[in-house]
Design brief:
Blueprint (H helix, E strand, L loop, with lengths): L2 H6 E13 L2 H7 L1 H21 L2 E5 L5 E5 L2 H19 L10 E13 L2 E3 L1 H11 L6 E4 H7 L7 E8 L6 E7 L10 H4 L3 E4 L3 E2 L7 H16 L5 E2 L2 H4 L9 H8 L3 E10 L2 E10 L4 E11 L3 H15 L11 H4 L5 H15 L3 H17 L4 H17 L5 H18 L4 H13 L3 H14 L4 H14 L2 H14 L6 H12 L3 H8 L7 H13 L3 H14 L5 H4 L9 H13 L5
Parallel strand pairs: 4-6, 9-11, 9-12, 10-12
Antiparallel strand pairs: 1-3, 1-4, 2-3, 4-5, 6-8, 7-8, 12-13, 13-14
């Protein structure tokens, strides 16, 4: 390097903003011209915001954007403004064409050569960005230290991360602020968001708890059928069961705009349901109603509640016709109550409650053999037995599951749970065409069910569309912030197929008790990253847990990739980790 070149190279401390498009490859594959036009428009928007916040765009290679600021506060405010503006623009686009950016901000030392910047400060910003959700912002600990007392923001500590090619760990924070700027995230503005809190049992009888819970779940499910609503999942909702709830606090925790509360009092053949819709930000009651009915009118009550809520939301959301007549609810109230209680028991996910649920669901079918939803849930509860190994004969149980699904489908082809389970069966049988058909039917019937949404990500992963799969699984996690740990494994597998090995490892860290399959995937990732010691350690864990382990017998049968290249990649990664073929 000449003396003049040395003089041209400078060092300075700066805040670095790094951003890229989530799911860019899928967008380009779907429509290159539309994607290029949107990206060009959004680049202009981002450049304008960066300039207004006293920053400078350094580079825009591909779908990436790199900018620098003299202040961490300016950089974070620019990131918030970018996400708010892009969210508004995305809301005007069809869902499949929306372009969400991940943003990372770091504060570090730069090497500056002309208009270019280099160094660990830039690299850390890019690695931090990769940990952000689509539409989200992550910052390094240095940035957090600079801004957390100066800006009205809330942060989630994501812990220390080992970042590729960066010496030492880096602590990362996610911005989760409930501020006017932060509310611009796509999840917040794309659709009105709502949580249905568990209805209170006012009957005074413990055995009636299941009725209140079941009614809550049915109203929640009915609301989920509306594509113009973002509905928080049942699992998350029921975390607040039996608690005195601070509506504003719950809304902040889950980033929702509206809350539904209610109570149920059942006496003999009469039921009283009270329900109210609350604007969470103002804690103002938008609408309230009381229903005093005979039990036979329970479905009409549900229809009235959901219709009234949707009609009062901002913008007068145009709800699609739900076709209650086509869904064929049972007229047998005893059967209905058996199904409600069976669902509650099933959700507890333990052996004893599962067997009690089977007894109740079979009683419901005896009372009303043509009750399609009962047959569907019989299959689901048996599927839980099959999945956890609680059945005596897996082959017999699998046959019973398929028979029940066939009956349920024949009685009511519009039950989303029937199609969800049929899609899962299609995957297990390596019939991906059948799986895709039923998965799409399930998604059309209930687009806000976190189990259906996460399964969409799984199916796309098996089809070779890992990037799209990652986005769907992330969406399921947003729908249910208290999701089961297995969602992390689904995400990890999608990231692995996408060759995001470091991210795969990070996702698997969320699993508290990893089994042999988790350790096998960890071994494969470390092998691909060139960390032979870690690969060997995890491979040894696999062999310790399953002494006769082989890739052919224990891994390949549960891999359902359509593309031979994905299967070869998985197999070769495991071999590279030292696991027996």
């Amino acid at each position: 390097m000449s003396k003049d070149q040395e003089n041209a190279v400078q060092r300075r401390l700066a805040a670095i903003l790094s951003a890229d498009v989530a799911g860019y490859s899928r967008l380009m594959g779907d429509d290159e011209l539309a994607t290029v036009r949107t990206l060009s428009e959004y680049r202009g928007v981002i450049a304008g915001i960066v300039a207004s916040q006293h920053g400078r765009v350094v580079d825009m290679p591909g779908d990436n954007i790199l900018a620098e600021f003299g202040s961490a506060v300016d950089a974070v405010e620019a990131a918030l403004a970018v996400q708010a503006e892009l969210a508004t623009r995305n809301a005007k686009l069809p869902e499949q064409r929306r372009m969400a950016f991940r943003v990372g901000v770091n504060l570090g030392d730069l090497v500056v050569e002309g208009d270019r910047i280099y160094g660990d400060g830039v690299n850390v910003a890019a690695r931090v960005e990769a940990l952000a959700h689509p539409g989200g912002i992550c910052v390094s600990a240095k940035v957090h230290g600079e801004v957390h007392r100066k800006l009205a923001l809330a942060f989630e500590d994501l812990g220390e991360h080992a970042l590729k090619n960066i010496a030492g760990g880096v602590r990362v924070y996610r911005i989760v602020a409930d501020t006017p700027a932060a509310r611009g995230t796509p999840a917040r503005h794309a659709k009105p968001s709502i949580i249905v809190l568990p209805f209170a049992n006012m009957s005074g009888a413990a055995e009636q708890e299941f009725f209140a819970d079941g009614l809550t779940e049915d109203i929640l499910t009915d609301l989920s059928r509306f594509r113009d609503l973002f509905v928080i999942s049942r699992n998350t909702s029921f975390k607040y069961r039996g608690q005195a709830v601070d509506v504003k606090k719950v809304a902040r925790e889950l980033d929702v705009q509206y809350v539904v509360e209610g109570s149920v009092r059942k006496a003999g053949n009469r039921v009283r349901v009270t329900v109210q819709l609350i604007d969470a930000e103002s804690d103002h009651h938008i609408w309230a109603e009381r229903f005093d009915r005979d039990m036979e009118d329970i479905f009409a009550i549900q229809d009235e509640i959901t219709s009234a809520i949707v009609a009062t939301l901002p913008g007068r959301v145009e709800a699609a016709a739900r076709g209650r007549a086509e869904r064929k609810p049972t007229g047998n109230m005893a059967a209905y109550e058996c199904v409600l209680e069976a669902k509650i028991l099933h959700h507890r996910s333990n052996r004893d409650d599962n067997f009690r649920a089977v007894g109740l669901i079979r009683r419901a079918i005896e009372l009303d053999p043509r009750y399609a939803h009962a047959h569907a849930w019989h299959a689901c509860i048996l599927g839980q037995q099959w999945g956890y190994g609680w059945c005596e004969d897996r082959t017999v149980t699998q046959s019973a599951i398929e028979q029940e699904l066939e009956v349920a489908l024949g009685l009511d082809e519009n039950d989303s749970d029937v199609h969800r389970i049929l899609a899962a069966v299609g995957v297990v049988r390596n019939d991906l065409d059948k799986a895709v058909y039923h998965q799409q039917r399930a998604l059309a019937l209930n687009p806000n069910d976190d189990l259906i949404v996460v399964q969409q990500g799984e199916v796309l992963t098996w089809l070779g569309q890992a990037e799209a799969g990652i986005e769907w699984i992330r969406k399921a996690m947003r729908l249910n912030p208290y999701h089961p740990e297995r969602f992390w494994f689904h995400l990890a597998r999608a990231q692995f197929v996408g060759k995001r090995y470091a991210e795969t490892i990070e996702s698997l860290r969320h699993i508290t008790a990893p089994d042999s399959l988790h350790h096998a995937l960890l071994a494969a990732c470390h092998a691909q990253l060139g960390d032979a010691a870690e690969a060997a350690r995890h491979a040894a864990e696999v062999l310790k847990r399953v002494p006769g382990f082989s890739i052919r017998e224990h891994c390949l049968p549960i891999l359902h990739y359509r593309r031979e290249s994905d299967l070869a990649h998985h197999r070769e990664s495991l071999v590279k980790a030292g696991l027996p073929a």
